[in-house]
Amino acid sequence: MFVIIGYIVVCASVFGGFAMAGGHLAALFQPLELLMIGGAALGAFFVGNDMKSIKATAAAFPTLFKGSKFTKKLYLDLLAMMFDILTKIRKDGMMAIEKDVEDPEQSTIFTKYPNLLHDHHLIDFICDYLRLMLSGNMDAFQIENLMDNEIETHHNEGHVPVHCIARLGDGLPAFGIVAAVMGVVHTMESIGIPPSELGLLIAHALVGTFLGILLAYGFVGPLSSLCEQKLNESTKIYQTVKVVLLASLNGYAPTIAIEFGRKVLYSTERPSFIELEDHIKQNKSR
What we know:
Layout: H1 2-20, H2 31-48, H3 51-63, H4 72-92, H5 98-102, H6 114-117, H7 120-135, H8 140-189, H9 195-249, H10 254-264, H11 273-284
Helix pairs in contact: 2-8, 3-8, 4-9, 4-10, 4-11, 7-9, 8-9, 9-10
């Protein structure tokens, strides 16, 4: 929603200011200039990226126009779910969660939190490390190192769309100049026409530079920044799980372990201690 609002503000400011200054908006409507700039940028995008990067960018692009799913409610559910898992381990032993880990979709713990169960990457991450804890052959330092490597891999993969969109935005001003030069060439070859028509051709040529810069800094460039922010949000949930599981491995009680995880969260999504305690009590009563 905010992306659309931002685009409306950009267009209203630029085109509205131009119109208020006495400019004719019709002069800025140059579909052929857009074709040259957009087509060249898209072609360069395909040349500069492999299929994996293109698919990752295409998958990430629609999410930029949606709100964040990483809300306080989601993290309350995550911490409550981790508390349920760790409490079961503490009461009944590590082997008690074997069935939950092997088939989370049939687990009485995981199915209590459907909004988390739908995130298959997160559930796999949790189950994989619970499975390693079940094996009993790895200490906390080894599991922490493995977690760090997996989170880093996730983060690096998430940076692919960020870099692709940023490079696309960086190239737009140059392609705007290309379109402008093509317009100048067309103007020079039409040098014999009346001055009024010649001025119109020059104006059309300059629109190419304008469009390239506007698209780069008003539309595409901000998307790369937004994509990076969403990536950092998506990484935080794995870091929270990591801290909770490591605290449990180091012998802390479930209540203390989830408090470790709560402290990792950004302040905007971090529930208070009382909020988390009340949420866990509500889930127990279900």
